[in-house]
Design goal:
The protein is built from 14 helices and 10 strands. By secondary structure, the chain is of the alpha/beta class. The protein has 2 domains: 28-112 and 251-315, Periplasmic binding protein-like II (D-Maltodextrin-Binding Protein, domain 2, 3-Layer(aba) Sandwich); 114-219, D-Maltodextrin-Binding Protein, domain 2. The strands form 4 sheets. The chain has a 3-stranded antiparallel sheet. The chain has a 3-stranded antiparallel sheet with strand order 8-5-9. α7 (165-171) links the parallel β6 and β7. The chain is globular. The relative contact order is 0.18. The protein binds trimethylamine oxide. Trimethylamine oxide is lined by residues 39, 86, 89, 115, 157, 161, 206.
Length: 316
């Protein structure tokens, strides 16, 4: 009881130091647990938000978590929130968790996302007709590697991101084999090496990301995503298979939370509701690590220093 009182007092002092007004309901001392994943904007954003919550007087812990299984972890309250729910990669896992209950949609960032097959601009000379997927398929053998020959290689991300590239290849009858990279940095290393040689490459990429500031290139245009593509075989060009489409070209980026968060840490929940990042802000978070080679925690400090005008009002 005494420690609760002290904690509440500390939180109030911290809040008034930030110029916040209004009394606080009883807030828990337990740590707010923020899951981190395997791409850098998400790790930096997690630390940016964690540091803001600490400034507001909360205890925060971070835990590396599989990026699909996290929706089950949030639902069960094992982790408290998720800051980057990308529609293309995680829409299905998020919806499945929403249906089971225990997780809430805390709204969208002011960002538009896309995650899909992508190629560097020089490929347009080597493969006429890009970014059309059928043009890509006609050039499949150019993308062959010893392990995929005579088919082309699509270099996908780590297996916990998008799980359905092979279904798409099969549903669209493409002459490609999906090879998963072990990490995001393995994707970028292959892109850098291919670009230096102007060698054929088609790989997984997304926006917002640091890549757009460093490389020119485009997403492949597959049959346009529509509701039903991923679960209704009758949808789309192949009437017998699902996944005969691209990922959403104008996808959402959502925030999610355990449904007990609001009662346990009401002030933190308000902050989570208010916070929102834009495409350039998210791309910058990634670049601070992927280009400037800062550690994610340092990158979060730099980002916070440079963007006080952005986050100040979220703490009020
Ligand atoms: C989830 N991701 C941004 C890597 O596509």
């Amino acid at each position: 009881m005494l420690s609760k009182t002290i904690k509440t007092f500390t939180a109030l002092v911290a809040m008034s130091a930030l110029g916040a007004t209004g009394a606080f309901a009883q807030e828990s001392d337990d740590p707010i647990i923020i899951p981190t994943h395997n791409w850098n904007s998400q790790i930096v954003m997690s630390h940016v938000v964690g540091k803001l919550l600490e400034r507001a007087g909360y205890n925060v812990e971070y835990t590396p978590t599989d990026s699909q299984a996290v929706y089950e972890s949030v639902r069960l309250g094992d982790v408290t929130l998720e800051l980057e729910v990308w529609e293309g990669a995680f829409g299905q896992s998020f919806n499945a968790a929403l249906k089971k209950g225990g997780i809430v949609d805390v709204g969208d960032h002011n960002a538009v996302t896309r995650e899909d097959w992508w190629y560097p601009a020089y490929m347009e000379e080597l493969c006429p007709g890009l970014p059309d997927w059928q043009a890509l398929n006609r050039c499949a053998s150019q993308f062959a590697t010893p392990e995929t020959s005579p088919k082309g290689r699509f270099l996908a991300g780590p297996v916990d991101w998008l799980k359905h590239d092979q279904e798409r290849v099969d549903a669209l009858g493409m002459d490609f084999i999906v090879v998963n990279a072990g990490s995001a940095s393995a994707l970028w290393a292959e892109l850098e090496s291919a670009s230096k040689r102007r060698a054929p490459i088609v790989l997984f990429n997304w926006t917002p990301n640091f890549i757009e500031a460093v490389y020119e290139g485009k997403f492949i245009e597959f049959p346009e995503y529509g509701k039903g593509c991923k679960d209704d075989p009758a949808w789309g060009p192949n009437k017998e298979e699902t996944h005969d489409c691209g990922n959403p070209a104008n996808g959402y980026l959502k925030k999610a939370a355990w449904d007990g968060m609001e009662a346990k840490w009401p002030g933190a929940y308000r902050i989570l509701e208010k916070l929102s990042f834009t495409n350039p802000q998210i791309a910058k978070m990634a670049a601070l690590v992927d280009v400037d080679e800062l550690e994610p925690e340092e990158a979060a400090d730099v980002w916070l220093d440079e963007n006080e005008q952005v986050w100040k009002s979220w703490l009020q």
